[in-house]
Amino acid sequence: MKLTIRETNITAKNKIGELYLCSEEDIIISPNSVSLLTTGLSFDFPDGYKFDIELVEDLSDSDIILLAKTISHERQGKELGLIVSNCGRKTFRIDDGTLIATYSLIKKEKIEFMVKDDL
What we know:
Layout: E1 4-7, E2 18-20, E3 27-29, E4 33-44, E5 49-55, H1 57-60, E6 64-66, E7 70-72, E8 79-86, E9 92-94, E10 99-107
Antiparallel strand pairs: 1-4, 2-10, 3-9, 4-8, 5-7, 5-10, 6-8
């Protein structure tokens, strides 16, 4: 399968499976606040697929939480931004160009349920 990627910012880093912070300046995330981490990339992928996103270890071991881990087909073509929350007591800094997450493209399967009296 081919995946189309568009760099929405000239400074965007484009490496398969990796997302980097692409911002005019470094991002400071205060305690108990929410921030948008921009990637400078947009994707075009087929209906029936979704992106599964995970923060890199440096962020996931901190008090930073990714609020939306799945990007659906309906968001394609728009710049991919990650909404994160700092649930800790310390201010957290992310420098421009830092690897922030990895992604996988996953096929969504249609599920049909059958109701039975016994399993």
